[in-house]
Amino acid sequence: MYTLEEYRMKSALIEQVIDNLNSAIIVLDTDTNIVLANKVAENLANKSKLHLFGLQGGEAFNCIHADDDPMGCGYGVTCRDCVLRNTFEKTIHTKESQVNIEASMTFFDKGHRILSVTTSWLSNSELTIVALNDITEMKQQEVLRLKHTKLQAAIKTGGAVCHEMNQPLSVISGYIDLMIMDYNPDEAYKNMIIIKEQIIRLGGITRKLMNITSFKEMMYLSDTILDIDKSVSTQNE
């Protein structure tokens, strides 16, 4: 058994440990009321630990929907679909941890934020430890990277299309110019055959474009473009 002084020392040590964690840490009772919080949680909520004690999650962190219902946080219409609250309640009901669950919350003071939520059930004390990480900037960077990747793919695809189609189009244009400058029925017929062959070639290129299943590149001038032939599924060629 610990003496009162030993208990206080261990409690202070535990509080010091969680205060130095990078995540916002809160501890919830079975009614999802906060019974403990660290400094990062204070910063996220813009409230002191003392003022966080006894509050519900949305109420503590200034969720814009916390006051939607007179009964308080968790009773509003939008609360039914709140991933944060549902994750807390699932942990309490199943006694199982939830790891890196992505949720969102719109704060009065911070606007819309994306959070990563990890929970752990403490069976001895019937408490739930919750770790919250604001991943909004990381998700925004992911979106930007994805857009950049798609843009680069579109540029390379556009370059490949221009490269492939430019050749038959140049042939068609050249033979049409010859027919205009020096029209000869016999030569015109031969030229029309050649033009038709190039149009068929163009049709083949468009069919390949519709059957692309991967992204293979090839060098073109000083850059790379999509290699249409290597990017087409062999089953569809």
Main features:
5-stranded antiparallel sheet; 237 residues; Beta-Lactamase; alpha+beta
What is the topological layout?
Elements: H1 4-19, E1 24-28, E2 34-37, H2 39-45, H3 49-52, H4 57-60, H5 83-94, E3 98-107, E4 111-122, E5 127-134, H6 136-181, H7 185-210, E6 217-220, E7 223-226, H8 228-231
Antiparallel strand pairs: 1-2, 1-5, 3-4, 4-5, 6-7
Helix pairs in contact: 6-7
In words, what does this structure look like?
- A five-stranded antiparallel sheet has the order 2-1-5-4-3, with helices on both faces.
- The N and C termini lie far apart (77 Å).
- It is rod-shaped, with a radius of gyration of 32 Å.
- With 237 residues, the chain is of the alpha+beta class.
- α6 packs antiparallel against α7.
- 50% of the residues lie in helices and 20% in strands.
- The chain folds into two domains: 4-134, 2-Layer Sandwich (Beta-Lactamase); 141-231, Orthogonal Bundle (Helix Hairpins).
